[in-house]
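Margin note from the TA: students keep mixing up input and output lines. Inputs are the sequences; the output is the structure of the whole complex. Example:
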Amino acid sequence: MSVDNAPPAIECSGLARYFGERTALRDVTLQLPDGATLAVLGRNGAGKTTLLRILASLLRPHAGEIRLFGEPLPARAFAVRGRLGLLGHEPLLYRDLSGRENLQYHARLHRVAPERVDEVLGAVQMDRRGAEPVRLLSRGMVQRLAVARAVLHRPKLLLLDEPRANLDPAAAELVEPLIGRGSGCTRVLTSHDPQAALAEADLVLALKDGRPAFVGQPDDFGAERVRELYA
Amino acid sequence: MRTAMVVLRKDLRLELRTWETLPAMVLFALVTFVIFHFGLNRTTISGQLAAGVLTVTLLFAAMLGVNRLFVAEREQGGFDAFLLAPVDRTSMLFAKASALFLFLCVLEVVAVPAFGLFLLGPSLGPALPGLVLVLALANLGLSVIGTLVSAIAIHTRARDLIGPLLGLPLLVPALIATARAAGPLLAASHPASAPPGKWLLILALYDVVFGLLAYAVFDFLLED
């Protein structure tokens, strides 16, 4: 997990974000060591995606402080962007380009060797369908391409918003080495399957209406708390 | 510059794949010439009137391109993907402005000869070298302002309205300079062999000023 003297992968304190009058996130404070997995749980609209987008430097927090690998956001976002991999609700792929063309585009943006494109396409078993426009692929296949896109540049921090959505069990197993524990990345994971998320978490953040209802070890987040969170 | 080329290549590839922007711009220009033909109730036009008709038509056709410039980025997550990459955000400005510039050039390759054929009284041939220079400078200004305005409009709900509402007033100086520079070239009697230097200079100055302005503010337009 944590490397000696290395700053935590994520440090947040008093993080808040509003959308007009609505509070999307408030008072989020946590620290995640390098290599650890944070599971973010909560009902729809609890603030999980907002938190991930703040961590990805795509949204600015309205209050609080945030550091990724010791670098403050958003001031030093440029320094950490290449180390982040975001797998969100949107695949971030152009529908009229093929999977391979999309990955080649991302590889050029991230200055990744072209060979890496074939490597990740093979890893998600999309090499045979890589030439087809994304709009012609099934949702599961698009999700596999999105996984390939998220790990293409070998990020250190993976931000995974329901990463196994649309994946059948075989496909979920396929992407496991890329985005699972075995990836060796620090991970922030949201899921609507709390048991699965807890099983792979080192730290749990439960959000209720944008506020932390629990921050701590998965073992301390019992079945009763899960029921309360989703009640 | 390298990143701008990467984004530009992607944009051109998307356009060649979908043909969502260029055909609309070209068809709009051709239809507008037909409307002017009947609306003015004249077989041919020349001089300042011809320059005005050509410039206004190209400007409105350009607005279609401006409105579509960031649609794929907005609807298919291109903005997020770009912002997640460790690249200079200004490269998006260069890429989009270059794409729009190229679209305008292609539009003019079709629209200007069509204008010469259907509306223009004097022969287009002698005016062409001067006209190319005038339109190149006008395209530059249109591309920069168009990209700037499109980047603002894309974050709003009424993006199809905001583009022209913001863009057209900003483009009025360029419109005047373009029409005044092209007018003498299209005169029926004694057409000028070169556009007036004063208007060319104004166009060039406009391009430089708005180019620098766009460069200064574009980063902030991509911010949350």
